[in-house]
Amino acid sequence: MTDHEPASAFDISRGVRRGELRAEQVVESALARLDASRPLNAIVHRDDDRALDRARALDRRRAAGQRPGPLAGVPLAVKDNICTRSMPTTCASRILRGYVSPFDATAVERLEGAGAVVVAKTNCDEFGMGSSSENGAYGPVLHPRDPGRSPGGSSGGSAVVVATRGVPVALGSDTGGSVRQPAAMCGVVGLKPTYGRVSRWGLVAHGSSLDQIGPITRTVRDAALVLRAAGGADERDATSSSEPVPDYVASLGQGAHGLTVGLLAQTIETDEIDPSVARATERAASVLAEAGARVERVVLEAAEHAIAIYYVIATAEASSNLARFDGVRFGRRAEGAGTVGELYEETRGAGFGLEVKRRILLGTFALSAGYREAYYKRALEARDRLRGEMDELLARVDLLLLPTAPQPAFPLGEKLDDPLAMYLSDVFTVIASLGGHPAISIPAPRDGDQLPVAVQLIGARFDESRLLGAASSLEERGFRTAVA
Amino acid sequence: MSGPRVPREQAERVARLARISLTFDESASLRGQLASILRYVNGLGPLEPAPERAMPPAGSAPLRDDRVRDSLDRDAVLSRAPLVRGGHFIVPRVIR
Prior knowledge:
- The structure holds two protein chains of two kinds.
- Chain A has 16 helices and eleven strands.
- By secondary structure, chain A is an alpha/beta fold.
- By secondary structure, chain B is mostly helical.
- Chain B has a domain at 8-44: Histone, subunit A (Orthogonal Bundle), CATH 1.10.20.
- Chain B is built from three helices and two strands; from the N terminus they run αααββ.
- The longest helix of chain B has 18 residues, at 24-41.
- At the A-B interface, helix 10, helix 11, helix 12, helix 13 and helix 14 of A face helix 1 and helix 2 of B.
């Protein structure tokens, strides 16, 4: 990248629309930067020829006087569990090795329709199951600041390519925090929209009542820009919402002035989080107050059980969703099976990694006769209580403030043999997932070589405008992606 | 991992239900890990009498317009399967 080339999607698209930048040049330099970050293992598929062809076509359209779209020329990376026709979609799983989807996900279709150019698919935890990007068939993604650490997960590759300036925008998927937590650990912005805001068509299902596609970006404005282009009803996803998509970019200027922000006291008044995370959250509270928000300490009692609720519901849904991987219709199959039953068991035994098996077994157990009432039904009821308490709280305050992750990036392998410890790294992100609320992770200011930490804001459903406005206010006051 | 494990028969039953073959080592480590996760989940406490039916938060699903649309191309779908013949997915013989 040349030093004068803009790093944000907003500036790139403006430059391309005005004819000050050529999309081809932008995509070429993105591909060169992705080459440079290869050792981090963030990318699993690329199609440079197609990306350059699309960029040239955009340049020709603009030269012919046509409008190239609000994301014109923006290089886009897409998590490997979001379907693309142009490149394989393998969910970082052996069971889908080489699989190429016959269709594009709606989010991809809409972003490319707005002028973005898909340049790569990013590495992740297998089927989005994990919090460290170590559980995939392609091997672990490495943290850009310290290759001995995890970049978080499951959308670790997407966070890394944005943090290393490979691309300004990457799509991730967030079931229990998989966009926000890696964004936090890599020091970039991660947005999980309201459940139903972005179509899930073409996102390989993990937990269908929780999954959302969300952008990882360097700026809040880019997150707003991408959400505006990707959001909205889609008849191919019956759970997508017909709620109108406002101009999120235009509403950024609303800032935090006049908002009431509830600081979730219990999340920082505990010994179980790193002191740097607690300090960053307190600092965000002061900064929001300086920006004109009223900040009060609040308590969300049901959050105490959020991890337990999440891991019952998410695994139950996963065990059902992943039943489709049976070696018959797509992906790999085990050779030599004598019966259909053996075909299923051997294909799935050989094709899934250990974490995916663990979750399928846990979910199958939670749904099985004799245990369903005690686990799945109990978790659904506890989820209802949590949602109710969150809705009451968000009727009283506009936004909730809490950390994104309890600690900065942790060493590779540290939690691999202790799944419960790994699950607990999602303790602050699963809250918005269970409630279906929008949430954003914003990098906190840091000193010197300190690893990134981040804070999280949660908003009322479909109130991304206020969420992004307050995030923008924090960004203006130092809660922003570091330049390097 | 040391400590309590899910009994072998129970783990085997769940693996059968899930249609997943496990190696001996996988089964041994999963039995311990599942026991520890289930102990944690049991912290949810007993069921409370709930007057309302618990439902996932999907909201009300709208009905689609009743009109003909293109479906995925059959050959494109079949070409992604591991084994096809004569326009069919091939599986091991079911009826002997």
